[in-house]
Amino acid sequence: MTIIVTGGAGFIGGNFVHYMLKKYPDYRIVCLDALTYAGNRETLRDVAENPDFRFVHGDITDREGVYRLFAEEKPDIVVNFAAESHVDRSIENPSVFLTTNVIGTQVLMDACREYNVPRYHQVSTDEVYGDLPLDRPDLFFTEDTPIHTSSPYSASKASADLLVLAYCRTFGFPATISRCSNNYGPYHFPEKLIPLMITNALADKPLPVYGNGENIRDWLYVGDHCRAIDMIIHNGKIGEVYNVGGHNEMKNIDIVKLICRELGKPETLITYVEDRKGHDLRYAIDPTKIGKELGWSPETKFSDGIKTTIQWYLENRKWWEDILSGEYKKSSLFTK
Ligand code: NAD
Ligand code: DAU
Q: What is the pLDDT of residues 163-178, one digit of tens each?
């Protein structure tokens, strides 16, 4: 079994590569990653010597390069994590979000069709459903919730989802889609809320909370997301969308205060800053379908997962300090 994992030098893709190589010693995992600012070779250091792993530096929008790789590897499954993933950057510069997230998805699906790849999985997000009001805790996103996007990022992810579903219907394309809530855990790029707050707090820097900090996100430990994708690619039904989330809603401000407490840092570091434009109020996933159909449920409680995550950042300072200094771009892994 050969699986091409795109975006494997990023946060969730990197965790997925580690997870799959450990769980399936007889699988070959090929990571295709363009190493944008969010890609870090060092995330893959622990698997670099594994004979079942190959790293390919390449862009999913490069049709020729992608076709060449598919011809060489003849993958059994393609899992697409590669994306521009940060909402704030999409507000600053939407173009690259459309190129990578939409056109890149199309190129990968075309390559699958050209080389008869039997299975494709699109890693999507709960952000395609827009947001929920703060005063209606009874409402959740189901797979039938209408697409209603807020940011250029979520619009690009929703566009890709629609394209995947269109390929399923028109060409009988063998794809599934997962829409997960906010992930946290090791190897999370320190521009996102949790790793930013941990790394800033460790440096006694201000902790910038957008707006009033009352916005709610539904947090899932990254390992639980990887396990959900594993279940979907092996047992999911073609043409289906699966929501992934663990009913773990928290206000941003409560997360930031918790990180301060865990690190023994004063809450005076918290600084309220201008709100994100179009800021989604609340995300909350209803994961009933994946639970019923595939038997998935989250295994890591937030109270444990956040401690593990903080501990990981304490023990892996070089990984994130090199990102902050720009040194990570000089890693020589996979360059020979
Ligand atoms: P990330 O930004 O940490 O990593 C993205 C990776 O994709 C990087 O390694 C980057 O180099 C690579 N990449 C970007 N453009 C590329 C291109 N054109 N060709 C090849 N590689 C390219 O992202 P993440 O947080 O790990 O998210 C992974 C996927 O999961 C994304 O599709 C995202 O939309 C989705 N998702 C993320 C979350 C979350 O909480 N982080 C939740 C749900 C879904
Ligand atoms: O829900 C899934 C999505 O989660 C993924 O699709 C995205 O790729 C991923 O980046 C994440 O999007 P968010 O916008 O929810 O994540 P972010 O970490 O950027 O922000 C989380 C919340 O924290 C959000 O309400 C904005 C707020 N925030 C964020 C940053 C970076 C702050 O208050 N201060 C900050 O400095």
A: 999 999 999 999 999 9
The predicted pLDDT at position 35 comes to: 98
Residue whose C-alpha is closest to residue 188's, from 138, 216, 225:
225
Q: Is 323 in the pocket of ligand 1 (CB under 6 A)?
A: no
Which DSSP letter does residue 285 get? B
Q: How far is the CA of 8 from the centre of ligand 1 (A)?
A: 8
The answer to whether residue 240 is catalytic is no
Nearest listed ligand to the Cα of residue 275: 2
Given a contact cutoff of 8 angstroms between Cβ atoms, the answer to whether 12 and 225 are in contact is yes
Atom 23 of ligand 2, residue of closest alpha carbon: 193
Residue whose pair of structure tokens reads 């011809």 in the numeric block: 71
How many Å lie between the centroid of ligand 1 and the Cα of residue 159? 16
Calculate the dihedral angle through the C-alpha atoms of 154, 114, 229, 222, rounding to the nearest 10 degrees: -60
Give, to the nearest 10 degrees, the angle between helix 317-325 and helix 302-315: 70
Work out the pLDDT band at 336, boundaries 50, 70, 90. Answer: confident
Residue 57: other Cβ atoms inside 10 A: 15
CB atoms within 10 A of CB 83: 28
Q: What is the pTM of this model?
A: 0.98
pLDDT in tens, 277-296: 999 999 999 999 999 999 99
Q: Is 101 in the pocket of ligand 1 (CB under 6 A)?
A: no
Distance 258 CA to ligand 1 centre (A): 26
